[in-house]
Amino acid sequence: MSTIHSVDLYPLFVLLKRPYGDANGWKMHRAALIIRIHTASGISGWGEAVDWLPSLMRLFEHRIVPEIMHQDARHIQKWVQKIARWNRRAASAVSMALSEIATKQAGCSMCDWWGGKLHTRVPVYASFQSYVQKERWDRLAVDQVLAAYEAGFRQCKVKVGGRTLQEDQRHIQLLLNELPANARIAIDANESYDAAAAQAWLPLLAQSNRWLWFEEPISLKHAEAYRDLKRQLTIPIAGGENLTVSKDYLPLLQERALDIVQPDPMHLGGIEAYRHMLALARTHGLRVSPHTFDGALSRHYAVLAQACLPAWSKMQGDELEPVEWDAMENPLGELLSIKPREGHVVVPDEPGIGAEVDEELLQALKWDGSGY
Ligand code: MG
């Protein structure tokens, strides 16, 4: 009885107490659509999509739910590929939910479904939006990283590219001065520089060996420019969070323009496409550090997939790349029972995704349908 019997839709919306931002602008709210697909035999699976809620809701209510209702939940590829032609993020949500149903029917964990985990713990890094609407935003930005260090994180990512070079470098210098020496730092410019502005970071980057990577300094459209910049940098260069099909990574892979690729489990049109991207990176001898800033469920899938990824290095303690962990105010990030300890998440063994969705919180965060 693998027939799809019903689909619950939970559009979630939170207005932030204090907006925060990166080089792309301010985040005033956080929103997500959580779905739960039930089979006739009483098995259910959760999925998540992040996009503009009014259009996502219409798409699910009027097209996706009627399409999959009373169909076979085991035909994951068929439904996910069809829905990906309409909306890749919606397809990712359906992919997650149907995959969880399949694993529960098989009585195994998601990692076992994928062939078994290779790592019992997955490192995560605390990810920040550094800008707030205050004059000394840099002081506040450093304080929030120090608080994450106190909470056990030893890897973090902060933003640059949204202020003048002078202001941004003052922030990063302050961070270097105050963050204990055993913590490592990534800086993310969200594609905001040209090559000359990116090169202006070279002297400051040369001052320290604590860098994780320089993320998306320039537009990802220019693979050759990335390759040239990479030759000048002494630290890894990372990118790719917004690419929605794996073939868009190919010019970057062929030019060897990146050291670390950053696919997002919600952007590539399904968990299998996402895992294909991880394998493609390893095929090219590259590291993968997933982008997962949007939601708790997709982040959890990134952790599970990372646990099944062969190590990139034989150096003990550095063998697995970290998964992004949103460290900003975001109640949507609390939806799952999984929490990091000392900068790591323990990979669960229970059937399905091995994590419980907080249904009380799900009800409390439900979007009222008003404009935003
Ligand atoms: Mg980024």
Structural overview:
The protein has 372 residues and is of the alpha/beta class. The protein has 2 domains: 4-107, Enolase-like, domain 1; 112-346, Alpha-Beta Barrel (TIM Barrel). The chain is built from 13 helices and 12 strands. Helix 10 links the parallel strand 8 (237-239) and strand 9 (260-261). Helix 5 (137-150) packs parallel to helix 6. The longest helix is centred in the N-terminal third of the chain and has 19 residues, at 88-106. The radius of gyration is 20 Å and the shape is globular. The model has no long low-confidence stretch (mean pLDDT 96).
Keywords:
372 residues, alpha/beta, Enolase-like, domain 1, TIM Barrel, 2 domains, nine-stranded mixed β-sheet, three-stranded antiparallel β-sheet, 12 strands, 35% helix, globular, binds magnesium ion
Helix and strand topology:
Blueprint: E1 4-22, E2 25-39, E3 44-49, H1 53-68, H2 76-84, H3 88-106, H4 110-113, E4 121-127, H5 137-150, E5 155-159, H6 165-178, E6 184-188, H7 195-199, H8 202-205, E7 211-215, H9 223-232, E8 237-239, H10 250-254, E9 260-261, H11 271-283, E10 287-288, H12 296-307, E11 323-326, E12 344-346, H13 359-364
Parallel strand pairs: 4-5, 4-11, 5-6, 6-7, 7-8, 8-9, 9-10
Antiparallel strand pairs: 1-2, 2-3, 4-12
Helix pairs in contact: 2-3, 5-6
This protein binds magnesium ion.
Number of helices: 13
Over all CA atoms, what is the radius of gyration?
A: 20 Å
What portion of residues belong to β-strands?
15-25%
* Element pattern in H and E: EEEHHHHEHEHEHHEHEHEHEHEEH
Write down the overall geometry. Answer: globular
CATH class call of the largest domain: Alpha Beta
Helix content: 25-40%
Can you tell me the CATH architecture of the largest domain? Alpha-Beta Barrel
CATH superfamily of the largest domain: Enolase-like C-terminal domain
Which small molecules are bound?
magnesium ion
User: Tally of extended strands?
Assistant: 12
Counting structural domains, the number is 2
**Low-confidence region ranges:** none
Query: Terminal Cα separation, in Å?
Result: 41 Å
Derived from helix and strand composition plus strand pairing, the structural class reads alpha/beta
What would the CATH topology of the largest domain be?
A: TIM Barrel
Main sheet specs: 9 strands, mixed
Mean pLDDT: 96
